[in-house]
Amino acid sequence: MREPPENLIIRAGGNPMTLPAFTAIREEINKINHPSQPAVNWPLIESLALTLFRSHGVDLQSAIYYTLARMQLSGLAGFTEGCELLAGVMVSQWDDLWPPQPAVRTDLLDWFNTRCGHALRQHDYTARDLRMIYRAERALQLIVDRLQQSDLKRLPKVDNLLWFFQNTAKKLEQTRILPKPAAKPVQMPPLVYLAGTEPAPSEPDTGDDAGYAPSQPKVQVRFPEPPPRPMSALQGFGLGLLLGAFVLTGTWLGFYRPLQQQFTALTDTCLSYTNILTRPRVIELFPHRLISIKNTT
Q1: Nearest CA among 131, 141, 142 for reference residue 164
Q2: What pLDDT digit, counting tens, does each position of 15-70 carry?
Q3: Residue ranges making up the domain that contains 85
Q4: CA neighbor of 158 nearest in space, from 255, 60, 249, 265
Q5: Is residue 181 part of a domain?
Q6: I need a surface site. Which of 54, 99, 164, 286 has the fewest CB within 10 A?
Q7: What percent of the chain has pLDDT over 70?
Q8: Per the structure, how many domains does the chain have?
């Protein structure tokens, strides 16, 4: 059963060249460049590397082989696990790490960049891979920072892997938050009317159909009428004043004017009776009229 790398106690190991496990690992790795291209036993490399780490410690070359094997077996997740192990041993045990030669270390890390970079670029990534991509990016950032602080005369190109994961993460983030395209405004199509045609008078059959063209209906294209413009506030105010004037005029003509005419006629009648009663002759004859009425009764 495979032991997870996070359960390993990371400690730097010495030269593993004389160990059988390391020799078997190198034999499998050498198959990559063999002309006949035999199949590489990646599970065996993974298992032997873990055995070597437990018994002897972690060296730079074995850690690189282990990372490549994990990537071949588990893709992005396997590369991330191996890369985190590699970053841990490089950051904490760089001065004691085997091999000690700066040039050999640079060559090993360049080989790691080439092999892993070619395989990683063949994968198709989705938004579900972002969490694992962030982990790999962080581990590679630790490796790059440690290399920049080292005494290597020529820095390996591990930063190419870091840039690859950074660009991949940006692309996936953009596709995840890409806004939906705005809906296009709906435009009414023009209305098409077919005008009715009068039936053409029948012509005698000449037996020759050459030059005969059947009558075609005329096509008229009419665009929809634009909607009426809404009435402005000033126009509405003026229309209200005009309607109010009409209402007041009708009320005055239909109600107040007849009352005024009746009141004027009543006033004229009262004045006429008053004039009659106040005449001198009528006043003088009034007592005699009363006596005449009394005698009659």
Answers
A1: 141
A2: 999 999 999 999 999 999 888 889 999 999 999 999 999 999 999 999 999 999 99
A3: 5-176
A4: 60
A5: no
A6: 286
A7: 65
A8: 2
Looking at the fold, whether 64 and 137 belong to one and the same domain comes out as yes
Q: CB of 25 within 8 A of CB of 64?
A: no
**23 and 153 together in one domain:** yes
DSSP 164-194: HHHHHHHHHHHHHSPPPPPPPPP-PPPEEEE
**What is the rounded distance in angstroms from the CA atom of residue 207 to the CA atom of residue 21?**
103
Q: Give backbone dihedrals phi and psi of 103, rounded to 5 degrees, phi first.
A: -65, -40
Q: Which of 178, 171, 86 is nearest to 135 (CA)?
A: 86
Token pair of 49, please?
Answer: 């590397």
Write phi, then psi, for 23 (nearest 5 degrees).
-65, -40
- The tens digit of pLDDT for each residue in 251-284 reads 767 666 676 777 676 666 665 655 555 555 555 6
Strand extents, DSSP E, the chain:
191-194, 219-222
Q: In this structure, what token pair is assigned to residue 128?
A: 């579900």
Helix (H, G, I), strand (E, B) or coil at 36: coil
Can you read off the two tokens belonging to residue 94? 């760089």
Q: Is 75 left (phi over 0), alpha (psi -120 to 50) or beta?
A: left
What single letter denotes the amino acid at residue 285? L
What mean pLDDT comes out for the span 226-230?
60
Amino acid residing at 77: A
Q: Give CA 231 to chain center in angstroms.
A: 39
Phi, psi of 208 (to 5 degrees): -125, 115
